[in-house]
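not sure who needs this but someone in the group chat was asking about YkgJ family cysteine cluster protein from Ligilactobacillus ruminis so here u go. i didnt clean anything up, its just raw.
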Amino acid sequence: MTQEDLETVKMDKDMVDIAYYHDLAQQKQKEHAKFLAKLRQKKPKHLDKVVKETHAEVFAVVDCTKCANCCKDLGPDFTEADIERIAHAFRMNLGKFEDTYLRVDEDGDKVFQCMPCPFLGADNLCSIYPIRPKACREFPHTDRKKIYQINKLTIQNTLYCPAAYLFVEKLRHKLQL
């Protein structure tokens, strides 16, 4: 992938081509895993700074509202604080909110009963954006310090999020480990 490819997001009718990036991410799973493992073993100086810059560069060209694949396929884990905040905003008691929107998954996490996210509009905008769950605010986790601590999650996110894929590719290009 050339630097020009990294700076141009593949679009299809004003939407990010999710299938295109999913296929690329699948093809590069081993390369990405190897790169991130090296990153964990040999942490470059100023890694957090490079990660933050790379995240900013990627999100300067990626418009999440042209994709929203995370909202369509993944869904967040809800913390108790998330549940309380959103239920309060909806003027619902906690039990009613959980019964209406959530289930407990096989890992014991509270997640949506079904996908896509019930708060995702047809315009790919989140109807609860200011109070959205913490996991939604942090996704795809490409701006966090010590990125090497979440290698498995980062690789998984590349399959669903074009920005996560572009982030890893751009970071590989910059660091060339």
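also The chain has a mean pLDDT of 92. if thats useful
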